[in-house]
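1st attempt posting a full record on here, be nice pls
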Amino acid sequence: MYQSKFKIILAFLLVVFSSFAFSQKKFTIVLDAGHGGSDHGAYRSYEDIGRIAEKDVTLAITLKIGAKLEKNKDFKIIYTRKIDEFPSLSDRTNLANRSKADLFVSIHCNSAARNTAYGTETFVQGPNQNGENLEVAKRENDVIYLDEKDKQIFGSYNQSSPESLIALKLQQSKYLEASSLLGGLVEGNFVNRDKRFSRGVFQKNLHVLRMNAMPSVLIETGFINHPEESHYLASDKGQEEIAESIYLAIVDYKKAYDRKTGNVSSNKKPEPEKPVEVPLKNDFRILLMTTSIKYNEGDPAFHGLNYILSMKEGGVYKYYYSVTNMASIKDQNIKTAKDAGFKNAYAVGFMPNQKLNTGYYNIEVYVGKDKLSANSHILQTLKDVERNKMNGVFYYTYGKVYSLEDAVKLQADLEAKGIKNTIIQKMYK
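the predicted structure (as tokens):
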């Protein structure tokens, strides 16, 4: 069934790729591990294997796909996340568009009201919908309410509005065929290689795809709440098979792309092996700015950059972008920061797990002119919160750790408890 469909789709590739200009640049793929951080996605607990969370499964599969693709020198791989954190939908989309990506692949797990539903399915951006798939769209789109920026960008979009649907069709029509091709290749591999049940390829209005300026797919790799399929999703064997099928589909898609764009050279000499890059002794973060102003995550002041570490030191706020111990990535991060508008950005070295000789780190959980109520979420959730008042402003802090890594972990724990917009503070006393 799938082979015949692929032949039909491949016959239209000339039309699909006719608008894509020939380029010598590497084929850029953005891999998006769905959910993350405080957004667990779908989850279910089992007696034998414990709790399975969508955010963990998607990250594991995504990293496996990326590791396979990175071995191919024709590909450039960009991740929306490589750790347990939550980039907003707009952050994911902005990253893909800013990178001028050729392909966007978002990895997810499904869930349903009944635990009998099972199988894979792939969604491409489009207005077509039915009752069952509307539930998928609702669940995946609900995360816009976790992020204020997402609310502003996506919240006013009305999928039942004729004007919205017309705009959607105009925006996505040129990528629909290419996206459907990749979706078909993915689902075909799931069926033919992994012997799994495919529910098919569908059009759906999904916010993480809607604003992408490139072919994009969202892959539901199976149902978390199905007793058997969930065990498969949680296993290394299952994750490896899923990753391999998606990887091979992307490779086949790229071959079709190359044939139709002329981006093929049979006499192309293989690139010489580059020496293995040795990690640096220090971790490097890119200092974007030092200011007396406190900015929350996703603030326009960050110019669309994510993976921001906010630190208060000596009464001023410092904002760092990304972290790496590889020189090449450090240099790329500096370039990314400067391209985003931070012309004076530079790298600052941090010794991994270095303990402070004097002083400590804590987490600034609230700053305001009004004292927190005893019924506030912060005071109800945390014990031993310290309160200080300076120049008519109340400062609430929590915890005491002696390395930056421990401070980052403590901050993440607070985020998971619903305490957001905190600042790591370095104390010298």
